[in-house]
Specification:
single chain; 146 residues; mainly alpha; 6 helices
């Protein structure tokens, strides 16, 4: 059994790494941003993210979300429902920022559960860091108008 303290420490680690990734300043050089990403990788982002994802999936199994013959479409619909709930939070007058952030957290939770449930040997942490590295090298707006 994993203690609540370990769970909380893992969440804080992942949150601080996401914050570090978010604060990569646009005016820094590509080399500076890749260096900052490598620091995050050295800090163990993929392993911490995957450990938290495993706990998320374990909780989803215990809460009955994986009972029976669950299909990928159902799991994706649950992810979509969280995105829709986030949209409703920002459409409120006034916008409900706390609920917006909570629903975005639910999106991450559902995606993590999906990956561990359907691809247990995959590392979503590794996929995220590879995608960040690739995006750092892409042109502005990835070469699109919007």
């Amino acid at each position: 059994m994993i203690s609540a303290e370990w769970w909380f420490a893992g969440i804080l680690t992942v949150a601080s790494l996401f914050t570090a990734a978010y604060t990569l300043a646009a005016n820094k050089t590509l080399r500076d941003r890749i260096t900052e990403l490598n620091v995050m990788l050295y800090a163990g982002f993929p392993q911490h993210f995957d450990a938290v994802s495993a706990l998320i999936h374990k909780n989803a199994v215990e809460k009955g979300f994986w009972k029976g013959n669950r299909n990928k479409g159902e799991a994706l619909a649950l992810i979509h429902s969280e995105v829709s709930e986030c949209l409703e939070a920002i459409r409120a007058d006034p916008p409900d920022t706390a609920n917006e952030l909570e629903e975005l957290a639910d999106v991450v939770i559902r995606v993590s559960d999906y990956v561990v449930g359907y691809h247990p040997d995959a590392s979503l942490g590794d996929v995220i860091t590879t995608k960040i590295r690739n995006n750092l090298k892409r042109p502005r707006k990835h070469g699109k108008l919007f």
